């Protein structure tokens, strides 16, 4: 789960659209759901990420970096 406290960010689930996230937004990613999140272009983001692990799920499983093409496919963030 990700809580945005300041700034403007972007997130995307594998195969889904890139979405803008803003202060007050809460984004829930399911266990083992491939996704990325970070600051929008020329912006900053402050967020609180909460990860829960159990016997079947690692707390964090880092994947490959987001490509420039994936990142620039983002919606306008105004």
From TrEMBL:
Coiled coil: none annotated. PANTHER family: BLL4564 PROTEIN, RIBD C-TERMINAL DOMAIN CONTAINING PROTEIN. This is Cupin domain-containing protein. It comes from Streptomyces synnematoformans.
């Amino acid at each position: 789960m990700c809580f945005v406290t300041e700034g403007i960010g972007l997130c995307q689930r594998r195969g889904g659209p890139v979405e803008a996230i803003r202060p007050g937004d809460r984004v829930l990613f399911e266990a083992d759901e491939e996704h990325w999140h970070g600051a929008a272009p020329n912006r900053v983001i402050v967020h609180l990420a909460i990860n829960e692990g159990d016997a079947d799920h690692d707390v964090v499983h880092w994947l490959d970096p987001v490509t420039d093409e994936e990142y620039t496919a983002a919606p306008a963030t105004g």
